[in-house]
Amino acid sequence: MPGKSRTIRKEIKKKQRQRRRQKQAQQRDKQLEEEEAEKQKDPEYQKWQKQQLEWEEFERLASERQQQDEEEAWLRREALAQRQFQLDAAERRCEEDKINRLREQQAQELASIKEQQRQRREERKRMADRAAAEFESMMKTMDEYLNDTDTLKPPPLELQRLVETHPQERLCEFFTRTNCCRFGHTCSHNHRRPMLAKILLIRHFFSHPLLKLTSSDDYLELTEHDLRDSYDEFFHDAVAELEKFGKIVNFRALRNTLDYLRGHVFVEYAQERHALRAFINLQGRYYASRQLNVEFSNLKGWRGAVCGT
């Protein structure tokens, strides 16, 4: 068949070309081998070849040395990095330990503060309970003393004692003389107050604008006559009310512009029972829209207590 014979011829030509290429490659390889054999016989070529081998060996050794140097440098860097890592880790542990100690210290301080607060609360509660019990007992004693038909009987010893603010400190001379102190409860000296006395101190009982003025110009619209009229009205009003509790033998008011003395009134009763009855009944009462502040007084003399200082 024509198509098949053409294919066979193409295949034969392909194999012929392949054999020619193989033969040419064999001849070329043989020629290269012969040339190489000739070169090997040439001393210059042998010398050049030896130099090439030595150069290749030198490059190999140099490359190995460079690689070794790089490896050693890497190891040094790695060692330094490890050392720095250890130092950083130690520093972090030290900081963590410091923070933990600080936290523990703060926790201990907080626990201590809470414990102190708890103890103070308990102490305040105990003091409040004790004060309440004492108050109840005192009120019971006062009530029994008031209702006792024996008017000549002296008051119970419980009512005769003195209350002191700072027993270990020396007495406050000004308070001893006037039963008043500019520092009040914050005074560092000792204030003695009686549980029962014939004299009552009613703080800031009398009030008048003239007692509150600080500039001489303010006196232009107010006169001594205004002050006297106001005091006379107050006196008759207050004495009429206070005499309901017993006989009054002395009624003194302070004419003083100082805040801690202004308008104080001392009322002396003939008997301690009368003063006690007034003290109980005046607790929580109001006068001129102000709640009364009443306490017993142990004044030794009027001259020093009601002076104009």
Defining traits:
309 residues; alpha+beta; four-stranded antiparallel sheet; 8 helices; 8 strands; 62% helix; rod-shaped
What does this 3D model show about the protein?
The protein has 309 residues and is of the alpha+beta class. The longest helix is centred in the first third of the chain and has 105 residues, at 43-147. It has eight helices and eight strands. Strands 4-5-3-8 form a four-stranded antiparallel sheet, with helices on one face. The mean pLDDT is 86. It is 62% helix and 10% strand.
Tell me the span between the first and last alpha carbons. Answer: 155 Å
Structure class = alpha+beta
Order of helices and strands: HHHEHEEHHEEHEEEH
Mean pLDDT: 86
Number of strands: 8
Strand order of the largest sheet: 4-5-3-8
Main beta-sheet annotation: 4 strands, antiparallel
Contiguous helical run count: 8
Provide the low-confidence segments as ranges.
Answer: none
How would the global form be characterised? rod-shaped
Radius of gyration: 58 Å
The fraction of residues assigned to DSSP E strands is 5-15%
Helix share bin: 55-70%
